[in-house]
User: Fold these one by one.
Assistant:
Number 1:
Amino acid sequence: MEYQLPPIGTLTTRLAALNSGVQPATIRDWVRRGLLARCGGTPRRPLYRLADVEAARAAAKPTRDNQRTVKAA
């Protein structure tokens, strides 16, 4: 199997997760919620712009009334 690096300025799902400090499932969830958009790749191997990943990480996430929150210590 040949491993290829994504084009400069783009990240795979796994690299976006590593960059943001979250799991790859969280990146896919951000896409589903509309916080992050794909910029290319294939349906099975999407690519994301680095700036878009950073913006999604910093964006306020919607919460539910019964959702647990982490209290600052």
Number 2:
Amino acid sequence: MAKEILKISTKTLSPASNQKDKKILVCKPPRIVIFFVGGAGDKRPFLGSGPNGNIVDVKKYFESQFKREMSDFLINSVYVGYYEVHGSENVQRLAAEFIIDKKAKVYIVGHSLGGWNGAHFSQKLSKLGYTVEMLITLDPVGESQVLKVFADIYAAVPEPIAYIWINLRYYQSYLSIIKKYYPGKKYDDMKVDLSANAVADAGIQWWIGPRLDGVKVPDRLPDLNKIVDVNHVETLPAMQYPLDGKITAWSILKGSVETNLEGE
């Protein structure tokens, strides 16, 4: 979309000899840029699984709710894999290609490894002078030291920078660990598909909060840090899961985007 905008704004419409009145279409850079960052096996295969496009469910729903704004180039929606926001060169390339204007409000929705790398992405964009309005991390994964050896994820614990940070922990991902290591226990609510949570188990969910293992806790904690009862592979159900009353991560995201578009 960014490239299309640039082409429209620089196109020569007629020769100088043509003195008739001309209408020139001028498209401003998008006011909202939202990155949907997929996890392992989302945009490309991972250990024989995928691509599954789990985060695409949220992206499609978002675009269906903002059709007019998308068509008017007010919003730029970008789908990337966790590995595409890894490294300074990739971050700078994405910023130059899709954000364009530093006045734009940036939103990041990252799932699994995309939540871990997406949190780093928020910090790096902020340090480049961009405004990260909201970061949503969906069952972020990345604490495994083994995974950091062969996957394109950051080694350090993220230090997110965003005006609003929402973190959703997936209850079923943690239940699967209990069910795996304590098979003799019987829990009526443990209807958990272990295979679906295997990547989360292997990558180790990022526990954000008080810790006794010496792993650093981010200097800035989430504004909302909630547990949702969904499977690790799910994204849209997590976004629509009731948190406090009728509030959901989706309603907060939608309300923020609408507010930032007011007056356009």
Number 3:
Amino acid sequence: MIGIYEKALPKNISWRERLELAKKLNFDFVEISIDETDDRLSRLDWSKEERRVVRDAIFDTGVKIHSMALSGHRRFPLGSLDSSKREIALEMMEKAIDLAYDLGVRSIQLAGYDVYYEKKSVTTRDLFIENLQKCVKMAEDKGVLLSIEIMDDPFINSLSSFSKIKDQISSPYFQAYPDLGNLSAWPKNDVGYELEKYISNITQVHIKDTLAVTDEYPGKFKEVPFGDGCVDFLGCFKTLKRLNYNGSFVIEMWSEISDAPKKEIKDAQEFIYPFMREAGYDVK
């Protein structure tokens, strides 16, 4: 299945309109965003009726909300030294799992940060793991997967670094969500080997391009036009296909306030899909 990130689609439309547009663009699902803004965090408090409206739209269009990008923990991190922020982080997680359960979301993508705006330390790492264990227990209770995204941040910027956290949390409901762009941008990563070694932990894959990190440049991890970055898309797709990865992919873009989001999305499809077909994936 191939999905589209919500932030690629026009922002100020209803969920029914968003799902209908995704269907017209031949996507199987949409990945909902719960980011650090008040507007999107408020979705965690949707009423039963608001949830019913979204579920009806899913049922009527046949387009699922298959995954959730929960990046709100950048603002309220699980590893924060501020206990009040950690409490909010756990409350957010519980609400996100409940929302996922109600909407039929299979997987929640967690941002791989112990903290984002605070200084990192051994303590923030330990607090992150301690609270992540609590989150995984919540997810197990509802049968929802939690998948850590490979990030634009040194804390978890490879599947190998994810595995160090995975070693502390032995649960089938805690897995990895590699972003091909983020994975490729860090020069230390042997991308093919990373995918090979940790294929059994991969639940979903983000497709985007990035500019690589160098000694003189911090890299660019968002809004890099496809083809302008460092990602070897054919190599990544061929590796995943050889490894029999048949899970879902999500095209990650930020065209929601663009003058022509549909055109940008179609341009992205025209760039990505030939590589996927050459690798052996059947795409529309």
